[in-house]
């Protein structure tokens, strides 16, 4: 259901896209257009933007910031690997639907979806399950119909690879705690290594000085004794 907005004419349309006006709502269709980037010249009154089935690999900062009426954004079936921190700045208040399913996204910055109220689909991406993803999902309104299709392709704990992220988190697993434990173990190993090096140096230093002292003592013993005084006639 779209909200009512003032009438704004469609003044331009990106090449290879098709722009139509449906009851004063501008719909931009750019599906299967072999696009590699998001078109920069989108009509500012765009309400629905359909970019599915292209070859887009990256969502840069402020990609949609001029689209103040944007309510539906479909980026499914692309080759998206990276999403910048400010990718959706400017549309956080208006966007209602966001589809990022069927891409190549492994992780996203936790700030990328900040303040988004949209229902989001993240299914069928090769997600790496770790602390950042857990924090991202905590703040999102995931599409309930596809939530079980958000799968751990890889994970900081290998036994969770291949399982739905929500299922893993609902079981009580906390990837952030695991991250902290891993960091603590790494720090302990590093400190133990340095400690071992220091002890080894001290042992070497003591043994080296003992050897020098022994040689010095043997040299002193080899010197002529002055304890005998020769008395003349």
UniProtKB/TrEMBL annotation:
Upper lineage: Eukaryota, Metazoa, Chordata, Craniata, Vertebrata
Descriptive protein name: Leucine-rich repeat-containing protein 3
Subcellular location(s) per record: Membrane
GO cellular component annotations of the record: plasma membrane
Gene designation: LRRC3
Domain LRRNT residue range list: 12-48
Keyword Cytoplasm: no
InterPro entries (alphabetical): Leu-rich_rpt, Leu-rich_rpt_typical-subtyp, LRR_dom_sf, LRR_TM_domain-containing, LRRNT
Keywords: Leucine-rich repeat, Membrane, Repeat, Signal, Transmembrane, Transmembrane helix
Chain ranges passing through the membrane: 185-206
Family: Belongs to the LRRC3 family.
Keyword Signal: yes
Pfam families according to UniProt: LRR_1, LRR_8
Domain of life of the native organism: Eukaryota
UniProt topology in membrane: Single-pass membrane protein
